[in-house]
Amino acid sequence: MADQGVSPNIITYGTVIKAYCSANRLDQAFAVLEEMQKSTSLHPDEVTYNTLLDGCARYGLFDRGLEVLADMRRAGVPPSNYTLSVIAKLANRSKKPKKAFEMVDTLRKEFGLKLNMHVYNNLIHAATCDSNMMKAQEVFGTMLDERVRPDGRTYTLLLRFCITQKAAVPATALLRTAFGLKHQKEDLVKTGSEDSLHPLLVKALLRSCHWAAAPLRGNSALQEEVIQDTFDFLSRSLDSSGVPKLLADVQKSLPSLKLPKSTTSRIFAKP
Fold first, then answer.
1. Which of 79, 239, 251, 265 could form a cystine bridge with 83, CB 3.0-4.6 A?
2. Which stretches make up the PROP1-like PPR domain (predicted)?
3. Domain boundaries defined on the chain
């Protein structure tokens, strides 16, 4: 292009930078950025900075990602929700999950951003990486309070985390929410329970949350495998008296759901 007198624009440079980031050639990606800044009158835009941030996040280069963010701020390029999502991903991949909350909250306040589903999902992921059940519930409760609709990934992250943490009460509440089912206060507030719900989440769930049901079809759907694994976990919990009714309610919305015989036998064997 250069030999033929065609001048590359910001999209051209951005595409080359993205290609280097995808190939784990970050040094060359930054070299292209430096060349663009020195040899042309072009300035990096939000897409360019986000591409470099995502490259740093993909390979867990935390300090280098912070440098990109600092350059972005010095250039006066405001971050978007996509930037915040990548920032949370950067902290997660760099094994600094607590930093995800700190950085996202700082940028949210500074630029007046309303977090979207993707940012919330990455914050939930950060809480699970930090093995913090209450924080994961708090983030989900805030998400519902802000009326941001969850997707299949939201529920997958939370339900898988409940299974690994052996948290039956949150798993039951989440499964009911995923299918738009109503909640009873006595089921959400269980005195003395070791896996109790976060107060913010209880408050959100006691409102009508039918709009927060998980999609059951399409790329963002909650997969049946996750539902099956959750019922299998609940069938093994000490208190599974409400599980048969929950299963019946879920199968009304998802008639195709089939559980292994071992799971159903445990569910219906208990009083």
1. 79
2. 63-165
3. 1-85, 134-271
